[in-house]
Design a protein that fits this description.
The chain has two domains: about 290 residues, Transferase(Phosphotransferase) domain 1 (Transferase(Phosphotransferase), domain 1, Orthogonal Bundle), CATH 1.10.510.10; about 100 residues, no CATH class. About 30% of the residues lie in helices and about 15% in strands. A hairpin with a 2-residue loop joins strand 2 and strand 3. Helix 10 runs antiparallel to helix 11.
Length: about 450
């Protein structure tokens, strides 16, 4: 028979109703060479204190297990966390550099002191935008990929165990530290470190195989990370109920609400990923490498959305195109003859040919009065600065036509402004107002989930 051990963060009440402060360490108390400065926080398993090394002045954090939880396996659990962390040695995993036991028998570990806040606090403060969620999840994936390569399964992934550190180089993307490897399981041929006879984890993030008490694997972490991702992107857990038993039953049998019901514009690849990570069968879930790769693709898609013109569905160019490339578009006139279209140059040849033909017709008209009328029509058809007029003499006299000659024997080139419309700035397409039902704004400045 297995016993459920929840690791959810909550105030701890020692046996007999004693307040948790009775096992608290005071200012100046020592754990080996480490001197307590103040308490940083409390959780279900223990308390964490800010400490400083009495000789070299190094600052660190001291994690001490609650007195009521001391058992034969508790010291082993503390040592297990230290072994796991040092075995993985990843920058996104909190560093542990000392273990020990207090005079009252409580085991402790000394770890790097982190300045920041748990991801659960950050999620409660305000909505975390999708691109920031992806940046955080990718760092968690990196830590888990390294752990899985060392045959280590975390088994207790949740928002409380992801710590965010301010990143001066990129304030919008905090650095991540994955905490609490105390219930991690080392899987190898000859070693199986765990707490025997206990079902460990947090009910809201428990994989189905954990709820059944079956063997765990790296796919167990994929499921729990899927719950975290669902919660961060959609601002609610996939399964919620009144009791832990009901939640565990939902993990075993229930289907989570489709993400698109909560975020209609969710990228399809992200929705498919979330549902695949929450598959009941471990073999149906993607690997952690696949999860990381898909999140990178989703990140790229969200970046493309930021470059989409609102309401047009077309990509807005980073810089305007050169005007010469727009010469053939309606509403644009070239400013340089070299940039005129080929069709305009052909028109100039035709005009010149007509002018030559007109000159020949004029010569014939002076000798043949019967062709005067036709010659006049031909002449007036020539493009010239002023119209050509034919003046007939008195009908009694011989019908000799007098034609007003062209001002210049050279054909006149028609200005570009008379052949093409004048240059105009193209009108911008009308921008449609954002629909109030649209759950995510392309530029990421509006709360995406309404």
């Amino acid at each position: 028979m297995q016993t459920m051990v929840s690791t959810a963060s909550a105030p701890v009440q020692p046996p007999g109703g004693e307040p948790p402060e009775l096992d608290a360490m005071e200012l100046g108390d020592k754990a080996g060479p480490w001197v307590v400065e103040r308490e940083l926080g409390r959780g279900g398993m223990g308390a964490v204190y800010a400490v400083v090394h009495e000789e070299i002045g190094k600052r660190a954090a001291l994690k001490v297990m609650h007195r009521k939880l001391i058992t034969g396996s508790s010291a082993e659990r503390i040592l297990q966390e230290a072994r796991v962390v040092n075995q993985v040695a990843h920058p996104n995993i909190v560093d542990i550099f000392e273990t020990g036991t207090l005079d009252d028998g409580r085991p402790y570990i000394v770890m790097e002191r982190l300045e920041g806040m748990p991801l659960s606090y950050r999620a409660d403060e305000a909505k975390i935008l999708p691109d920031q969620v992806i940046a955080i999840l990718l760092q968690v994936c990196d830590a888990l990929i390294a752990a899985h390569a060392a045959n280590i399964v975390h088994r207790d992934l949740k928002l409380d165990n992801v710590f965010l550190i301010d990143n001066p180089d990129e304030p919008s993307t905090p650095r991540v530290k994955l905490l609490d490897w105390g219930i991690a399981k080392v899987i190898s041929n000859d070693v199986r470190h765990t707490i025997e006879g206990q079902l460990v984890g947090t009910p809201q993030y428990l994989a189905p195989e954990q709820a059944r008490g079956a063997a765990v694997s790296p796919q167990t972490d994929v499921y729990s990370l899927g719950v975290m991702a669902y919660e961060l992107f959609l601002e609610q857990l996939p399964f919620e109920a009144e009791t832990s038993a009901e939640i565990m039953a939902m993990h075993l049998r229930a289907t989570p609400p489709p993400p698109s019901e909560l975020w209609p514009d969710i990228p399809p690849s992200l929705e498919n990923l979330l549902l695949a990570m929450l598959a009941k069968a471990p073999d149906a879930r993607p690997s952690m490498l696949t999860v990381a790769h898909t999140l990178e693709l989703v990140r790229d898609e969200l970046k493309m959305r930021k470059h989409l013109a609102v309401g047009t569905g077309t990509v807005v160019p980073e810089t305007p195109r050169p005007l010469t490339r727009l010469a053939s578009a309606p509403g644009f006139a070239p400013t340089e003859p070299a940039s005129w279209p080929r069709s305009n140059r052909r028109l100039h040849v035709v005009v010149g040919a007509l002018a030559i033909a007109a000159s020949a017709a004029m010569f014939i008209l002076t000798r043949d009065t019967e062709n005067a009328s036709a010659a006049s029509k031909v002449e007036t058809a020539v493009v010239a600065p002023r119209p050509v007029a034919a003046k007939l003499v008195d009908p009694a006299t011989p019908p000799i036509a007098t034609v007003v000659p062209l001002a210049s024997p050279t054909p006149q080139i028609v200005p570009a402004s008379t052949l093409r419309p004048a240059h105009k700035t193209p009108r911008k397409p009308p921008v449609k107002p954002r629909r109030s039902s649209t759950p995510i704004d392309p530029d990421g400045t509006v709360d995406p989930y309404l």
